[in-house]
Amino acid sequence: MATLYRKYRPQLFKDIIGQDHIVKTLQKALENDRLAHAYLFCGPRGVGKTTIARILAKAANCLDAKNRPCGKCKNCLAIAQGKFIDLIEIDAASNRGIDEIRDLRDKIQFAPNIGKYRVYIIDEVHMLTREAFNALLKTLEEPPAHTIFIFATTEIHKVPETVISRCQRFDFHLGKSALVEKSIKQIAKSEKFKLSDDVLRLIVKASGGSYRDAQSLLDQLSPYLAKGEITLAEALKILNLAALEQLIEFIDILKSNDQKKAISYLQNLRERGVDFAEFVNMLIAKVREELIEKIQAGDDLSWHQITLHRLIAAALESKSSPIDTLPLELAVLDICEGEGGEDIKQESKPQQDAPSKISEIPKDDLAEDKKIESKLDFKEEKKEPAKTDQKKLTQISADQRKAIIETIATKNKTFGSLLETTEWILEGDRLVILAGFNFHKDKIMEKKNYSTLKSEVENAMNCEVDLICKIKGKEDIAEDIGSVFF
Predict the structure, then answer these.
(1) Which residues are 90's β-sheet partners?
(2) Adjacent-strand bridge partners of 471
């Protein structure tokens, strides 16, 4: 019995979902009898590159002059059955050498046996060796009139520019969730599967926009769906998507700020042989997904934003770390304690002396500003910059701001990442830090963070600085939302 993705593979242009920009262009070329000699189909796996290549081969050799491909003539039927000798499909992964390409180059000189065109579909063309590509160039430049090349690749950056420039390039897109869901519903209906909404959403999400992957996942569940509906938990186990459950569970632990439980969870994953590099990437993708949902809902983004900055840093650090799990473990400690790597026992205690609202800090004149230190209960750490006079801050450039944040980030990456999301303006001779949320403002105004920031600004600007933090207006936040990830 054929697998679902083969059974329901589109046979005509009208059956293609989600690649309208490509289908319309090819149909116009067919109508005007302006087929190119070489096409390059590039894009993610499972989005229809090889399927459209076969449909194009049908259309080029279809015997119906008005409706190409008709799907009914002997040539169309032969191609659908894999019996058309003028359609040659080559897997470049296993036929990547110069000898195979030389053999191909010699054979294309012969006229087609049955159809109008001899069509060569070379899948994963980026796998060809450099010598093989060079051997192919001359043929691509001056191909026989009866030959059409269709190259497919998931890694366009590995294809030489000399080859790309000799082809008509088409970029395929991942399927939108609604389109993937629609295709799966149609198959489930045809197969009379009892598919719940939860399991349907799981298949769509796990497919990542690949139609073929979605159909393969549905095929894996088909023995159970044919007999009756299955639960989401059962589907997760059958599809071996326990990693998704692990991610959701681990994110919940991070949000609970339970450092001990989070580290224990990571140790358990390590004992089970989980690939931590892949786990971090999946974790970043999941938190990003939640962030986008919160952007759309207009919810607070602070936790997700800071967590993503820290996880991305951990992913980069793990590549050079002597212990691959250490950067993630340190990131987890930082995320759970809401700080940037200070002593856990000391910093995990609630800080009673930090103000929760900026309105508690007088800011009307310089005398009142000095009450900030008493409000924040600063210790007498007189790390004063060298100042010949008591000059005030009169300007601060974008480059100076960037340098200050980079210096702070070397000591406290989480705090540095937070400051990158803020805006700095001068009100008179006072530096105002505009934060997006109360959570950000509270972190900036915490004793240690505020002291570090003030000290670094004064050292960089070589003058005394009056520094306060405010919350951005809604109009400012709306402008910044779009830059969070896009």
Answers:
(1) 122
(2) 435
What pLDDT, in 10s, does the model give residues 331-362? 999 898 764 433 333 333 344 443 433 334 44
Contact 302, 414 (CB under 8 A): no
Query: Which alpha helices (H) appear in 62-160, and where do they start and end?
Result: 74-80, 98-107, 130-141
Q: Looking at the structure, tell me whether residues 129 and 46 fall in a common domain.
A: yes
The SS3 of residue 96 is coil
CA distance 460 to 45: 51
Whole-angstrom distance, CA of residue 47 vs CA of residue 22: 12
The residue-averaged pLDDT of 303-326 equals: 87
Spell out the long-range contacts of 228-235 with Cβ–Cβ below 8 A and sequence spacing 24 or more. 228/194, 229/194, 229/195, 229/196, 229/199, 230/196, 230/199, 231/196, 231/198, 231/199, 232/196, 232/198, 232/199, 232/202, 235/198, 235/199, 235/202, 235/203
Is the pLDDT confidence value at 187 over 90? yes
Asked if 122 and 265 sit in the same domain, the reply is no
Per-residue pLDDT of 58-93, as tens digits, reads: 999 999 888 899 999 999 999 999 899 999 999 888
**Reduced 3-state DSSP string for 450-467:** HHHHHHHHHHHHCCECEE
Q: What is the pTM of this model?
A: 0.57
The mean pLDDT value for 195-218 works out to 89
The average pLDDT across 321-332 equals 87
Higher per-residue pLDDT: 388 or 188: 188
Last residue of a domain, one of 238, 253, 270: 238
Do 246 and 234 reside in the same domain of the chain? no
Distance in angstroms (rounded) separating the CA atoms of residues 137 and 38? 11
Shared domain for 10 and 124, answered yes or no, is yes
Q: What is the CA 109 to chain-centroid distance, rounded?
A: 44
H or E segment and range at residue 469 = strand 466-471
Tokens of 183: 């295709």
Residue 40 φ/ψ, nearest 5 degrees: -125, 110
